[in-house]
Amino acid sequence: MNFDFSESQEAVAALAEQVFSGSAGADRVAVVERTADRFDRELWAALATSDLLGVAIGQEHGGLGLGMVETALVLREQGRRVAPVPLWPTLVLGAMPIAEFGDQTLRDRWLGAVASGQAVLTGALSEWGADDAYSPSVTAARLPGGSWELNGSKPAVPAAGLADAVLVSTRIAGEDDSLAVFVVDLDADGVEVELSETTSREIHGELDLRSAVVGEDARLDGADGRSIIEWMLVRAQVAVAAVAVGCCEEATAMAAAYTSQREQFGRPLSTNQGVAMRAADCYIDTDCMRATLLQAAWLIDEGRSAAEIADAAAVAKWWSADAGQRVVHATQHLHGGMGADVDYPVHRYFLWVKQLENTFGGGSRQLAAIGRTLAKDW
Prior knowledge:
By secondary structure, this protein is an alpha+beta fold.
């Protein structure tokens, strides 16, 4: 077994580290957080120039044509800098499904624009009062002219105020258990977005669709809508886990540096056994998060079965939610009074991981999914 990254993966990781560390320092992040849209457009342009926005987009549309592992490595670097850019919504909820299921018109319209930094995409999969994304409250009804009319609402749409289009999961009106995904322009008639600030200080939104009309070619084409939604969801879970891994890696490194430099009673805090043991637990938890993340991403790139990928994604998401919370709580506590300062950089990692924990299902939901799989296979 070979656990080493390939040359291309190492190159992508190194490039991402260079771009994020050079353009998303703590001072820069603080400045962007004070803006209305919380979007670092300079960093977005740097990511486009470095071809990192096209990491998983085909070369025919100006991308690198790489896979989920490389995408996860880029997202991990974003997490390490808590960089305020809509990266995982655009790449994973938007570009990836369009590349996989969109027709040529959709691919030509959006993929090149994403790779060049000219477009922001997102996805609306969450449901009001539901514990999964497979019971959409939004309905889609075919009109006589061959178009679709969408009605309903979706909560917690990431980057809703920045996006040019959103991929919306829907139920087909009049057809039991028939689901679909549509690409909807956010400036179209009948589309409204109500914005709100999240735990991580990012701006998300509630999407309201009132007789919004989209063309037939706006529908993603696959075996069935349910399989497309599941395809999107497992990749989104892996993407969220990747960002959480980066957050925990950097938070642990910050805690190690702080406790090694901060002295109490004439010696560094890190020399106290309790401090060292708690920091070691952070390292172990983060390593488990990283291992399960890469396992899930690798299975996706290997084209394994949907069931195997879904199980691995649930495991990675559970580790990122459960262990991620332990890590950011511990690293904040290890900073003592400084950790309670909301303007001190380590606090951002706590906020980001708390937000990511409940994105597409928290630890309890993922554990329940894993339990159902084990019970079925018993």
